[in-house]
Amino acid sequence: MRPDPERVAAIIAETVEADMLPHYLKLGAGAVRTKESPTDLVTIVDEAMEAALKSRLLDLTPGAAFVGEEGAAADPALAKAISRAERCWIVDPLDGTRNFVNGVNEFGTIVAFVENGVTTGAWIYAAPLRAMAIGSKGEGVTWRGAPVRVRPPEGEKPAGYRSTGWLTPEWRDRLVSSLKKNVASEPGHCAAYAYLKLIEGAVDFKLSSRVHAWDHAAGALMLQELGGDLRWLDTSKAYAPQESQDRPILATAPGRDWPAIASLLCN
């Protein structure tokens, strides 16, 4: 049975108040360490948030699987449950960890609920704003309790976020050249805020190169509900929650033409 969206939203907000925001700008020595690279950070907050959310969300849905970013970092095999389990939570407990550590007010929590490989519930919480987006399959998307109002495209060139660092040299060189010529873009450091801006139409696209389900599953459902899109750039196939991959994927805001933006990036 699908969990009550408002109850899940309350659990997320309460956990952020208890385990995340009290530590913002107050991290002590030893509270931050690196994972795969000097810029890939994890903090005691990431770990505390994940533990608390795992406990509370599994209490809400006994028997469901749980895939959190930190747990999957320690044991990548956990991510197999995303496509195999009958019901599965996918959680990024502190998205935008680098922003959180450096005092940049763009960070939050992303949660998706997947049933038989299909995302049916999505929550993105902008922690500094204390504001929630909720998506439910077939029922639309709300932001701060009201239906999302999408902005029309602005400017002559599509504008958005880019990440190319995890691609093969061939793909990276091709995309970097097209990004410079055909669109306006800037690096993205927080998937939660990027997807919030996408669903509102504040940006036109998001190009990603390292694709984790905890970054994209919730946003993909919200875009789908609003008429946006998330597709693999190398095959044009729609995204479905799965194990992590290093491949180019393109999200487009509602009312934007995915093929047109993909063509700009690939030419």
Verbal overview:
The structure is a single chain. The protein has 267 residues and is α+β, with helices and mostly antiparallel strands. It contains nine helices and 14 strands. The chain has helices spanning 5-19, 44-60, 69-74, 81-84, 97-102, 169-182, 191-200, 213-226, 258-266; strands at 32-34, 41-43, 65-68, 87-95, 108-115, 118-126, 131-136, 140-143, 146-147, 159-162, 184-187, 205-211, 229-232, 245-252. The strands form three sheets. Strands 3-4-5-6-7-8-9 form a seven-stranded mixed beta sheet, with helices on both faces. The chain has a five-stranded mixed beta sheet with strand order 11-10-12-14-13, sandwiched between helices. It has a two-stranded antiparallel sheet with strand order 1-2. A hairpin with a 2-residue loop joins strand 5 and strand 6 (118-126). Helix 1 (5-19) runs antiparallel to helix 2 (44-60). 43% of the residues are buried. The model has no long low-confidence stretch (mean pLDDT 96).
Structural class: alpha+beta
By DSSP, the count of extended strands is 14
Helix share, percent: 25-40%
Oligomer: single chain
Main sheet characteristics: 7 strands, mixed
Beta-strand level of the residues, as a percent range? 25-35%
Poorly predicted ranges: none
General form: globular
Please report the distance between the alpha carbons of the first and last residues. Answer: 45 Å
